[in-house]
Amino acid sequence: MNPLRHVNRWFKADELLNHDRGWTYNLAIFRVVFLGVGVLPFAWDVIEWTDQVMPGLPKDAWVPISFYRYLPFDFISNVALAHWLSVANFALLGLGLLGVRTRWTLGAAAILSLYVFGLPQNQGKVDHYHHIIWFLTLLAIGPSGRLLSMDSLAQAVRSADRGRVDPIVPRSDALGTLRCAWILLGLLYLIPGLAKLEKAITAGWASADNLRAVLWLKWFEIYLYEPGFQLPLRIDLVPPPMLVLAGLGVILLEAGFIALVLFRPARPLLALSGLAFHIGNGLFLHIWFTDLMVAYVCLFDWTSMGRTLSKRLGRAPLLVLYDGGCRLCRRAMALLRSIDLFDDLEPVVGMSNDPRRLRYPHITDEMLAHDLFVVDSANEAGGYDAYRRIAAHIPFLWPIAPLMGWSPIARVGSRIYRRIADSRACSLVDRQPAPAATRAPGPHAVRWLCILLVLFQAGISGLLFSSYLARRYLPKGHKIPEALLAFSWREPVWPFDLYPTFSDTPGEFTDVWEARVALPDGREVGISRSAYAAAFGHTTKCLEITHGIMRERDPARQRSRSLDLVRTLWRHEPPEVRQAATGVKIYHATYRINPTDRAVVVQNLIHTFPVDLISPR
User: Side-chain half-sphere of 422: how many Cα atoms within 13 Å?
Assistant: First the structure.
């Protein structure tokens, strides 16, 4: 068979093996999990950052990036404004999680997050969680609130009053939104994979010696600034061929992700491999891309997997016979169908000529006028027992199904059901059911948004990588690297950027800016790791700030920046250290990074600050 036909079949499998409602459920699951597990905790961390870290940042620590360069400094450094905007953003994200006016709340949250999530990026070190902004924007524009939301429950009631109990979903929009998320994930990995590949070919990045040095350097950075540091699992001690295979596997995953992610058979393997990759980074390097790992939920076709599992377990959909002339019955059925992820229910209007209804003539129209009935291959049930069977069939209701069968609750529930059922009134449907698809023909906002997001991320990351290659291979002082940087809106950028490539080939030594407290007996002790953590909250950010001081060419400016940093750290030093100190000495030190031999090779004293200058009494 023609290989291209195979490729086309794999690409089209998503449309063939799941329907629009299933993909809309998948998108809703992505919204709930990504917001609830990834974004909301991150938003809370940003609130804490505005309370605990931002007030103590010295002016020199601010290095505005992207659009922040065009805002007044007093505006972006305003602690009270940042705090209340962060709180408002957290509230909007919570409403988006619940699905309250989902498009509007998530749209407002995406705009607000663009500002408040970007504030911590302006201290010389960009943390790469740009994808949060991308995915928030996609969830706002796409139909993520059509199901598993308060909006969907309200829509179910309105649709039921018009005679429709199945959820109304737009055609292809949910799958299109998810495909855009898959492509963006692939773009996120593409350039880091290509950068590692280039370094593997030209500088031996995938060699065991280099990978060992990468681990040692990261461990040394954590050792400098992380309180309670302990060496992680010593993966550097595994046999060299295993390290080489791991390095080649990372290159293959990152560089090949975007080429495979749109093909259904490859996606689960990519997801599992990616999760293993990030878990490994967390365990061995203390780099936890938690919010990115949470985004992997979008790579799985949950509804199709659920239906397949049900079939393998021999569970057929539960036939539900209900009174289509009863508004209350229609509303109940519509609400149940709005949370029926795996098509476990098969609703049929009881008083009709539907062939499925006619198979059960012993359930008369008079019986259906009083009770809802469920039927499967084994038996049937009506009234309260029917709802108990429904709860046992729908995963969202599984937690309450055993409670509904508990004798005291069952007795009370039966009485309540009976009272409501006997008091219900029939109401004819006065309008035709809404059409199955609501999307007008022609280009849709999701497609245009996807095109813009892909173009910006691919363009900016590609230009930054091209600039790096130009600096590497063209003569020093050549104009092309700077021109490429100018086109990419200057490095670094937000909310689009070249994600960290981790393609460096470190040597045996590294240089650090180091502050040591001078004691009366002549001893010197380093500024505590807890002071760095309290002041900046991030190991890599501490490293970037101190390296920025070392790169300063103007001696007076370097001294001023060093003093500001020491004053910031000094506030977080234990009182007993501050009281005993005579001053703080600043060194430019060169360390060996081998974890079994972390020794100072060379050190140069560059500044000495007396205590009265650091903390005037």
Answer: 6
- Same-domain pairing of 39 and 64: yes
d(CA 86, CA 93): 10
Among 257, 283, 300, the domain-final residue is 300
Strand bridging mode 318-322 / 345-349: parallel
> Which residue stretches of the chain have pLDDT < 50?
428, 430-443
Q: Are 140 and 103 in contact (CB under 8 A)?
A: yes
Contact 49, 120 (CB under 8 A): yes
List the one residue out of 227, 206, 218, 238 whose CA is nearest residue 286. Answer: 218
- Provide the phi-psi class of 522: left if phi over 0, else alpha when psi is between -120 and 50, else beta: left
Q: 360-369: per-residue pLDDT in tens?
A: 888 888 888 8
Please provide the DSSP assignment of 8-26 as one string.
HHHHHHHHHHS-HHHHHHH
Q: What is the pLDDT of residues 348-362, one digit of tens each?
A: 988 788 888 888 888
Cβ neighbours around 425 below 10 Å, total: 8
β-strand partners of 512: 589
Say what the pLDDT of residue 217 is: 92
Q: Which domain holds residue 168?
A: 3-300
**Under 8 Å between Cβ of 292 and 339:** no
> Over the Cα atoms of the chain, what is R_g?
30
> Within a 13 Å sphere around the CA of 490, how many CA atoms are in the beta-carbon half?
7
Q: b/e per residue, 448-466, with b = 16+ CB within 10 A? A: ebbeebbebbbebbbbbbb
pLDDT, tens digit, 9 for 90 and up, residues 419-459: 888 776 555 454 444 444 444 333 478 889 999 999 999 99
Q: Same domain, yes or no, for 271 and 362? A: no
| 149 and 115 co-located in one domain | yes
* Same domain, yes or no: 279 and 316: no
**Domain closes at, from 300, 323, 356:** 300
- Under 8 Å CB-to-CB from 190, ≥6 apart: which residues? 254, 255, 257, 258, 461
Report the domain count for the chain. 3
Q: Which residue has the tokens 């691919």?
A: 458
The dihedral sign for the CA sequence 185, 186, 190, 191: negative
